[in-house]
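Page header: ASSEMBLY MODEL / two components / 397 residues total.
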Amino acid sequence: MTQFSQNNIENAYRSKRAFIVIAILAVIICAVQLVGVIRELRSVNEARKSLSISSGDLDRITRQLPDMRRLAVAGRASSGGLDLFATTLSESAKSLGVSITALLPEGSPSASDIVVSDTKLGTWNATRLRVKGMAPFTNAMAFLDTFRGLMEPVRIDCYTVESNDTGHGEVSFELVLTVYEKRNGAS
Amino acid sequence: MKPFNFAETKLTERAFCGRQISRNLRLIGAFVIAMALVTIGSYACRRGIGAEARRVNSSLAVIQLDCTQARRELESAKATQCQNVWQSQLSEISGHRLSYLNAVIQCAPGDIWLSRVMSSEGDTMLTVDGKAVSFEALSTYTSRLRLTTTFEDVRIANTAFGKAGSTVFVDFSLNLKLKPVSVDSSPASNGAASASAQAPIHVPDVAGGR
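Prediction written out in full:
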């Protein structure tokens, strides 16, 4: 009888201990599940935020693009070069009745990194070019004026304009120019 | 001594223990069911959230790709625009240098003949050679040149009398010092040095990469 009674009490204690273990296990499992769900929710929220920011960026860039494209197309960006410039120069001279007597590149090209408003335009070769020619005075002046709106990256460094003693109002000129050319493969 | 019924006590105790055990077993069962429900719920939630996360991430990847392409295009357009600005600056410098020649020609009165105009490199000096009918004509010419805003200093370098047939004239040479210009006219430097253009340019800001 005593043995039976002791078994009853022990069984009650065992069931209580099992209950406590199960309860702790349940709490831990629930907490783990909850933390996992919260973590995933948070990551989804972060992804949504990134999505919203990226959408905003894309909208802004898309709004800016047409204007920038228009401005870029409206310009006269050219990769330059002696060949291209010589062609342009001879066409311009021909149309204005100017005779070009010499085109003399001087020295070897020097490389320069061109930066405009913190934007790198890459590496450009700068070549000095001496241009000699002659024309009636007004034609020569009109020809020189074309350098004010050239479609090429060219700059006048110095010049000499001299009257010819022919009595026909003809002048000869000599220009020293810097002609830029974008290097192949330069970004 | 009052008699005590042990059997009754044992029966009561047995019933109590039985109730305790069954209560604990019920609670254990309830916890197990709750755990199972929580696990199932959490699994369902995670599946839903995972699907949403996949959807959001794929949209994000597409948008980020679009963004990168648009940004690259914007950078390219910006570079082209900056190149336009640079070329305009080069033309402006050329135009500015030619404006000295125009000023020298426009200031010349009718009794002055210019035979040579020569500019020095670096926008510092302009040498003008010519012939004048008289010293007065030359003086008028230099006065006109001084009145322009183009030249800082006008000096007669030399004069000499000359004769062509029966006409006497004054051969002259002028040195004109040019005013400093605001446009950056320094020649591009060699090597890896940068030739930075100074004129301001408005370029919209580009969002940084993420």
